[in-house]
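note to self: dont lose this again. the chain is below, predicted strucutre after it. 109 aa total, dont forget to put it in the shared folder this time
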Amino acid sequence: MDPGDSSSTSCSAKAEEEEEFHVQQEQRVLKADLKMSETVVVHWEEKLMQYLANKKHVDRLPVLVSRKGAVQLLGVPKLANGTGKVQSNAVVALLRELKIEDRVLAVFR
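---
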């Protein structure tokens, strides 16, 4: 397969779009599931995931939320790089996007 081939590029772009769609769909389900008054604990690890749909290296940060003894994946935002500041900003942006930043009881990294 030629890396310059437009068909391989379009397949990679399609895979990336599908992944984003599924992540957004999961976030909508989680957002609907979170009750308005419920507090949550946010967790993330410094170990990053690598985007595997194409050869391009993109760091992704798995962010979890726990509530009432259950742990759920909150999201897996893409990162420009793996620095602590970029990770923290991505977590805050995710919490704001889901409109739950005011219900965070604790954050563990």
